[in-house]
């Protein structure tokens, strides 16, 4: 089969790899229909997750059709249209029993690095390095899905593929960001990052009762989407001082809930951002705390900071004094998507939620490297590139991409 493979920092190639096989009675094989890029993939491309190996298949947000089931699978049959949660739960450990699926004790078969860095290991993740189980990803014709009866969900009739694919990752991740923020009716919620996850967090905040949502980003097209689809007020941090603007918008009180939907490669302005870039380049810290600092400083006293953007290790100049003295609550985590899927499909079917607009580009898998280049550098108003493995480019199309090495440049 064909698959988009990582072969080094910013080096992606579409290659022929071995077809997946059933390895356990609880497995299913899914023929991939759509597979989306994700912002957290950029941390792999830029070399911030040091457990990638040449030939690893990328991708973790996908929709497809069940084509084969293990002997222990009874919930699914050949031909079922399904989405698969990107983070893998076993379904029977203590954490899965308590719906904390991303903390699963059993799905990460290579837990050593996480145990060393974090003290404990969490769940395995599709296409996300050998620190998280070494599972092959979804940017391929087919994918093996373990613990299928925990991680696979049938797509309800009437929900189109273009909507359903994002229930695999972006929608539940954004929903969990709002859930962790403990949004109450009438709250003012500030969200840093208007990518797919940030936009879904804004929509979730509205559904949960937020009175006002404020989107913080620097790309005009993303800010326009935040206003159009989530009713958000917008701040371009390259044009205003974010802290001063938030204080003015909230009468000096600060937002009740602040959501970091950016993570370790946060962009910013001023000396603090330059300091972070220098320390990260010298490997003296693994993440840039630009957004974390702004969120903690801006959040109202007694408020909540929700961290859903991915961080891998350590950050510098974290404002622990503000966190403690302002009596803030900080919560974070990888998404427990299995907990939220039924609710999310209900909101979709009843018209309160439709993430289909996240798909700005639908391309053949053979253009995978080019698609990631566009996504990384945010050209052509790209929000999400979604690959369709069934589409093959015309002979001679896409010269310089596909099976050839494509270099995408340094970190954004």
List the helices and strands and how they pair.
Layout: E1 2-6, E2 11-16, E3 28-36, H1 41-45, E4 56-57, E5 61-69, E6 81-84, E7 87-88, H2 94-97, H3 112-118, E8 124-125, E9 142-145, H4 148-151, E10 152-154, H5 161-164, H6 170-180, E11 188-192, H7 196-207, E12 212-217, H8 220-230, E13 233-236, H9 242-249, E14 257-260, H10 270-281, H11 290-298, E15 304-307, H12 320-325, E16 329-332, H13 337-349, E17 359-364, H14 368-377, E18 384-388, E19 406-407
Question: What can you see in these coordinates?
Answer:
The chain has 412 residues and is α/β, with parallel strands linked by helices. It is built from 14 helices and 19 strands. Strands 3, 5, 6, 9, 10, 17 and 18 form a seven-stranded mixed sheet that branches. A six-stranded parallel sheet has the order 13-12-11-14-15-16, with helices on both faces. A hairpin with a 4-residue loop joins strand 1 and strand 2. Helix 6 crosses helix 7, helix 6 packs across helix 13 and helix 7 runs parallel beside helix 8. About 2% of the residues have low confidence.
